Amino acid sequence: MTLTAATRAEQRETSLAHVKAAGWGKGLGTLARITRLTLRHPWQASAAVLATLVAATLQLVIPRLLGRAVDEAQGILSANADSAVAAQHALLITAATLLAVSVLRGLFTMAQNYYGDSVGHHLGYELRLATYEKLQRLSFSFHDKVHTGDLITLGILDIEGVRMFFNTGLVRMVLLTVLIGFGAILLISTDPLLGLLSLSFVPFVAWRSSVTQLLLRSTWLELQERLAVLTRVMDENLGGIRVVRAFAAQAFELSKFDRISEGALNLAHERVLIRVRNTSAMNFSFFAAMGLVLWVGGGRVAAGTMTVGTLASFLTFMTILQMPVRQLGLMVNSFARASTCGRRLFELLDQEITIADKPGAKPLELRDGVLAFEGVGFTYPGAEKPALVGIDFTARPGQTIGIVGPPGSGKSTIAHLIPRFYDVSAGRITIDGQDIRDVTLQSLRRAVGVVQQDAFLFTTSIENNVAYGDPWAEEQRIARAAESAQLHDYIVGLPTGYGTIVGERGASLSGGQRQRLTIARSLILRHAILVFDDSTAAVDAGTEQRIRAAIRAHAAERATLIISHRLSSLMHADEILFIEDGRIVERGTHAELLAADGRYRALHDLQLPPVEDALQGAAE
Ligand SMILES: Nc1ncnc2c1ncn2[C@@H]1O[C@H](COP(=O)(O)OP(=O)(O)OP(=O)(O)O)[C@@H](O)[C@H]1O
């Protein structure tokens, strides 16, 4: 799924024409699925619908009672003293009934809102959890394609669109059907002409309010898009604040922000205009209809063919009906929004998880921890050229394999295949003879530790960052891992030591300190196989040597892979693989590769002039 493109395309799917073009069938399928999800809460959903039915019926009774009250009041005025008492009594009963019906209607409307919202909130909670869980399990090939921002939008705005559907779409539909449907029957059966005149504003207001809401929705989506760009610009500006200041680019950044901000302002202005224009048109049609009813009805009252009370009940009914009819647009909007948001959300929830446990997969049985690549080939999904071809090597416990090669040659790809971030396209990878695709992911990832190029840290204490893989690790273990990563002395020198909170993504630490913290995070877990993917690039040579010595002490019982651009990081390895264009083009020990006088030798002479080499050798 290319969500970025889909998002852009679907965000325009908002005007009436688009809703039609999108195909009612698919849209209805999505709405049916949302409805099925809401039915997982049958009690609350039934209570909401029942309360709506009762509230709407009671609302229909109010104009009748009011009309009767008016007739009774008129009766008091025109009656003699005796019958006036009886008429007053009747008016009191009608007034009390009216009050009771109004209070009951209020209570049932409260219940309708409470249960309607409750179903929506439960659904929102479930969908948020399901989405987050899915995102945790989806393979990297999915995350490579989809922009993180789009996933966040999906997790917030789209779930909101689906969540609101029950109350603002379905429940409102029940309310409007009862009010308009039964109301029309009541009015027309009382007086066909006056009934039709009373309802004459309904089609126009329903049409205008639906079109307005769809227009507002399309501009709302555009506004969201512009605000998202504003957020991105601000985020980038703050993230790259040092670059901006260094290039004295504040004025440029400000004008960029101002331009997008102005676009958002214009759109907001457009929205206000749409709303104001349509509200005026709807008000006009309503009052025109009311004028007609007063004119025709007034004539009938004057001719004595209709009571004042009946005319009053027509006018009251029109007033009551006005608001729900205007809300028809909100209902149509809710249907359109739920259908778009739901389709996007379900597309994500239905994504196939390509990297998953095979049915009946067993945990990895670790005996020695021998890692073997057997003729491994790999092509990234959608890529034309393979990233790796025919990779063969074996790493035994206590052994170190060094991997070196030019940028983009496929070194990190080798690291990503071992914990199954991706599955091989050819050949196989085994640990102690077991194909890693046949064992459970959990057991595999417990056995393999990858210290990644990108030293990502969480905004929490240093202690929590080191113990991320094992939150129950004791203090000594945490300190020992930090010591091996040559970070302990620095940490204890901090005023709050291991409790120091690292800033956003570790911003308060230097690049080298961040890398050493991620090394400590991996060392604490005692993986059977450890992979360092260029993870000491930001560490000075002296510190790196000390880390290497400490790792070697740990590595006595594990297989280690070191990927690096810096030869000094891997020249001590038992076997060094020189990768180019995804193939091993040279292999051997440091001495063998120097003697071969090939690419490795050329890189060596470039990086380590003879004097430094001698010093390195002495330090080993
Ligand atoms: N997620 C991805 N999707 C598609 N192609 C990718 C992806 N990641 C890497 N590649 C491509 O695969 C090839 C190998 O990339 P890889 O990251 O393994 O190289 P590398 O040797 O580790 O590079 P460097 O030394 O710069 O880190 C490159 O051509 C790269 O563009």
Automatic annotation (TrEMBL):
Gene Ontology CC: plasma membrane
Domain ABC transmembrane type-1, residue spans: 47-337
Gene Ontology MF: a single term: ABC-type oligopeptide transporter activity
CDD domains given in the database record: ABC_6TM_YknU_like
InterPro entries, per database record: AAA+_ATPase, ABC1_TM_dom, ABC1_TM_sf, ABC_transporter-like_ATP-bd, ABC_transporter-like_CS, P-loop_NTPase, Type_1_exporter
Record-annotated membrane-spanning stretches: 43-66, 86-108, 170-188, 281-297, 303-321
Membrane topology qualifier: Multi-pass membrane protein
Keyword terms of this UniProt record: ATP-binding, Cell membrane, Membrane, Nucleotide-binding, Sugar transport, Transmembrane, Transmembrane helix, Transport
Localization terms from the record: Cell membrane
Domain ABC transporter: 371-606
Keyword Repeat belongs to the record: no
SMART domains membership: AAA
Record-stated family: Belongs to the ABC transporter superfamily.
UniProt-recorded name of the protein: ATP-binding cassette, subfamily B
